[in-house]
Amino acid sequence: MRRLTFTQGKLLIKLVYRESHSSTYGLIQAFLGPIKAGFYQAFAWVFWSQLKKTYDPDGEDKATERVARLIESWTTLIGYIFLFINKKKKSKKTQLISDIKIGD
Predict the structure, then answer these.
(1) Is the pTM of this model over 0.70?
(2) Residues 47, 6: contact at Cβ < 8 Å?
(3) Chain segment 65-88, per-residue pLDDT in tens
(4) Residues 35-49, buried b or exposed e (16+ Cβ, 10 A)?
């Protein structure tokens, strides 16, 4: 996380809000306390950003939402493909095992 670019950091703040429905500032405040949250907010402010930024999937962040949904759908599709492949492999193994037992 130390080597994020400015744009990557801003995107991370928005994606944290998208996934948790809580601002990054609120999460830092809950886990590390208000003093550290204030420090990180001030640090973000120096770089023209805010940890209290929200995520608006229908407005400003519409393109980000489209990309996130596309990635999520591909991840789900790939998961189903691997599940299907593993089922086929297991059924072949089960068939081989049953052939061996019947042959004895």
Answers:
(1) no
(2) yes
(3) 998 888 888 877 787 787 778 776
(4) eebeebbeebeeeeb
